[in-house]
Amino acid sequence: MELRHLRYFVAAAERGSVHEAAEQLHISQPAVSRQIHDLEDDLGATLFLRSTRGLELTPVGEMFLSRAKRLLEDVEDAKVHAGRMAQGLSGRLSLGFVENATWGGLLPQILMRFKLHAPDVDLELLPLNSSDQIVQLESGRLDGGFIYPFGDIAPCMETLTLDTHDVVAALPSAWLSETAPPRKLKDLANRDFITFPRPVYPAYFDRLQSVCLSLGVPLHSTQTAETETAILSLVSSGMGAAIVNSANRFRPPSLVELVELEDLSIPLTLTFIHAASNPNPALRSFLAIIEAECRASL
């Protein structure tokens, strides 16, 4: 049994005539009759009662018509869905992101534009730090990620630079009611700092510590937290200062002041990363949106 058998049968059943079915299908009448006979032989059942008035469905034919139409509709739906998946307009896309990158700037615009472009794509967004995203990209768990890369990127990965941020000092607001804002890192030399554990992102941890040491101010860590959101919460409580991404300016906590220091700069490049071999059409569609938004922002 092939799909054409079902199509010929449905056309004949709906028209009540082999002649009219042949005209609708743009094939010869004998071809329609032959395919219907073959179908009946295959099923071992009579689908039509034939008379001079035309075709009339048997009880088996009525049941089979309902099932055949459903099958043909499913095939058509599958065809449409496959086409949309091939164009990256449906399917599934898993992306990682660093939370502070979504609070303003280019990334929220990219996500909004993609949802408008491909609303049928099941978009999974996972808040993860940069190093965890890289691990999950290499394992195939993620299709792509928005990271701040430090150190070497595996050659099997492709990257696209979106924006560049820097670091700022995050201070409890109460401190600035007692003294002038610091201008250089050495102005904070005797202060306690909130940092993150080195295993969270070793390459960035080492870079930050190295730069601070070069300025003669090793960070005196009294507390650690794994995310900048948690770090800023501790800064809000007055437990210490922190060095954080300037992207936090898009959503600064009310009890925290973000201060740019004259001598401290660690460029943080917001980057989209994905495996070069990833075949997901939704990823290709997403990359097109990223590139269009990057051009529009120039």
What can be said about this structure in brief?
With 298 residues, this protein is of the alpha/beta class. It contains 10 helices and 12 strands.
Q: What spatial order of strands do you see in the largest sheet?
A: 4-3-5-12-6
Profile the largest sheet: 5 strands, mixed
* Termini Cα gap: 58 Å
Low-confidence stretches: none
Radius of gyration: 32 Å
- The SSE order reads HHHEEHEHEHEEEHEHEHEEEH
Proportion of beta-strand residues: 15-25%
Q: Look at the structure and give the mean pLDDT.
A: 93
Briefly note the structural class of the backbone: alpha/beta
Q: What is the overall number of helices? A: 10
Shape: rod-shaped
Percent range for helical residues?
40-55%
What's the count of strands?
A: 12
What report would you give on this structure?
The chain is an alpha/beta fold and 298 residues long. Helix content is 43%, strand content 22%. The longest helix has 28 residues, at 59-86. Helix 1 crosses helix 2, helix 1 crosses helix 3 and helix 2 packs across helix 3. Helix 8 (202-214) links the parallel strand 8 and strand 9. The chain has ten helices and twelve strands. The model has no long low-confidence stretch (mean pLDDT 93). The chain is rod-shaped. The chain has a five-stranded mixed beta sheet, with helices on both faces. It starts with a helix and ends with a helix.
